[in-house]
Amino acid sequence: xxxxxxxxxxxxxxxxxxxxxxxxxxxxxxxxxxxxxxxxxxxxxxxxxxxxxxxxxxxxxxxxxxxxxxxxxxxxxxxxxxxxxxxxxxxxxxxxxxxxxxxxxxxxxxxxxxxx
Length: 116
Fold this sequence. Notes:
Elements: E1 11-14, E2 19-28, E3 31-38, E4 41-44, E5 63-69, E6 83-88, H1 97-104
Antiparallel strand pairs: 1-2, 1-5, 2-3, 3-4, 5-6
């Protein structure tokens, strides 16, 4: 998913769990700018790279989920009803060796990869 794929009415979720509605070319005192809007404020598109990662040091602002409304008025609701998930950022899962073995169902030996 890229920033250019987003459309007005989509809902995005940041890593911290905050949800925003996408507004493309929203009118403001300085002209128009695309923003992510919520009841508590907004973020500018310009603060994000095309891969939907925030340019700030705080990675909690990275977008990890994009949803589309499945009916009129859905974007006005605060709940999760009426949205279909379009994309979820693939994140590496942290696991211990014991958890990996339990998931695979057999023992694992960690080896170093050769540089051949």
